[in-house]
Amino acid sequence: MAKRKIETVCVQGGYTPGNGEPRQVPIYQSTTFKYDTSEDMGKLFDLEASGYFYSRLQNPTCDTVAQKICELEGGVAAMLTSSGQAANFYATFNIANAGDHIISSSTIYGGTFNLFAVTMKKMGIDFTFLSPDCSTEELEAAFRPNTKAVFGETIANPALTVLDIEKFADAAHKHGVPLIIDNTFATPVNCRPFEFGADIVTHSTTKYMDGHGAQVGGCIVDSGNFDWLAHAEKFPGMCTPDDSYHGIIYAEKFGKAGYITKATAQLMRDFGSTPSPQSAFILNLGLESLHVRMARHCENGLAVAKFLKDHPMVDWVSYPSLEGDKYYDLAEKYLPNGSCGVVSFGVKGGRKAAEAFMKKLGVFAIETHVADARSCCLHPASATHRQMNDDELMAAGVRPELVRLSCGLESADDLIADLKNALEA
Ligand SMILES: *Cc1c(COP(=O)(O)O)cnc(C)c1O
Asked: Is 104's C-beta closer than 6 angstroms to any atom of ligand 1?
């Protein structure tokens, strides 16, 4: 089949019904699957045959939707998880053990920062956090013999920094480790990190992919480009026998699908962050219109950013696609069709003024959420990032007065009128 355009993949990817089969993706609401013989089932347990036996590991509805996201990103294998948190945990823990080290951009989602800096640290995995704007020398200096991956977000939530993916990919590859990119805010409609050298992409599908605030979910996609066997001493989990599956070597037996197979066979088996088939179905409804919605989110985001930039009550505005923004040039390179609907800005008067301003909003609702059809806003320093001290906040690119707006799909005129009214009240 000829390579289809992204719009077509959004609508039709992952599922091609046969003659007389349902047009819409069927929901396989079943925990288990029936087999004629114990031998048939044994082959599945030994990973000798592929098929379904228990929905904690794999489910046909979830796999169909994972396959669509895989095609959107241009990868070779993908899996859904029950949340974006689970996706980032599995993506890193799949290749790092106690005693290992990972380099991460410091401007990442607060939940991911906590996962890395607190929870995974307790598991014995050490993280170095670097500014996405660091020099190549600073990046080089962060690598250690036990470094196993580099991590960053295409567009950081909520700092809205744009990662120079090629710079990070080059450094990672020079040291024989993969680059993992959380592509939640850009979505594959606006950026496909594999085209710039990233090896693995993760998503919180809770955001634009679902787009309606209806399901929490995540996804991991593997480009298939990272050669694990060429760095076998660094990745024993991929390149030496797995005793829990009769000595299978993932990178040998499954080739380009080895990384996702390992994450499914070991991490989903043992941790069970499984999405429900219902949630996968809802996610797929969102994906069908992702390309149409992203264009509108970006149009509204840019209109709002332009309005704020010129308003006397506004100290600063951050929006990568706004001319003059610190990340405008990187956005032009990595996000030529637009970035996202999220705009951050500082109200004059600091933290207090930010809180007062938010009380006056009507169209924008106060929510711990971004990236859905309904516009919303958040004060991260008092919500998602409240565990951080002021130094950590600044390193994460979150100033205390920062207000994060998520521009939905309403009329830009109404969004601007709402902001104008609250700023002037
Ligand atoms: C929301 C978010 C996450 C976490 O995803 P959940 O689905 O809430 O678990 C991870 N990364 C980014 C960039 C996010 O915006």
From this structure: no
Q: Where are the alpha helices (DSSP H) in 254-347?
A: 258-262, 269-271, 277-288, 290-309, 328-334
Does the CB atom of residue 216 touch ligand 1 within 6 A? Answer: yes
Tell the residue nearest (CA) to atom 5 of ligand 1: 84
CB 35 within 8 A of CB 41: yes
Could you report the per-residue pLDDT of 337-390, keeping only the tens digit for each? 999 999 999 999 888 888 899 999 999 999 888 999 999 999 888 887 777 777
Q: Which of 207, 283, 340 maximizes ligand 1 atoms within 8 Å of its Cβ, making it the mutation to test the pocket?
A: 207
Closest ligand 1 atom number to CA of residue 85: 9
Domain end point (choices 267, 285, 303): 285
Among residues 280, 303, 98, the alpha carbon closest in space to that of 205 is found at 280
- What range defines the domain where residue 330 resides? 291-424
Q: Is the pTM of this model over 0.90?
A: yes
Summarize pLDDT for 294-340 with one digit per residue, the tens.
999 999 999 999 999 999 999 999 999 999 999 999 999 999 999 99
Q: Is position 19 within any domain?
A: no
| Cα 210 to ligand 1 centroid, rounded to whole Å | 12
